[in-house]
Amino acid sequence: MRTVFTIVALVLALAVVGLLARQQLSASRASLPSAPGVAPGAAGQPLPPTQQVQQYRQAVEAQMQQPRPLPADAQ
Fold this sequence. Notes:
Shape: elongated
Structural class: mainly alpha
Order of helices and strands: HH
Distance between the termini: 67 Å
């Protein structure tokens, strides 16, 4: 009987974690900004993988071009 309760508790815990993960992923997808200066796919259709990679590279390069702030003790 104790084993049954343990298995039921584990299944319930897994279900709760799964629901929370789904909510977090759907919220993060809605809030992701697109790459600056790059137009989205035509009529909201997804871009081909090569263009997605190119957009990602452009976004990373744009972020890398921004200067890092100096630490307070270095100024």
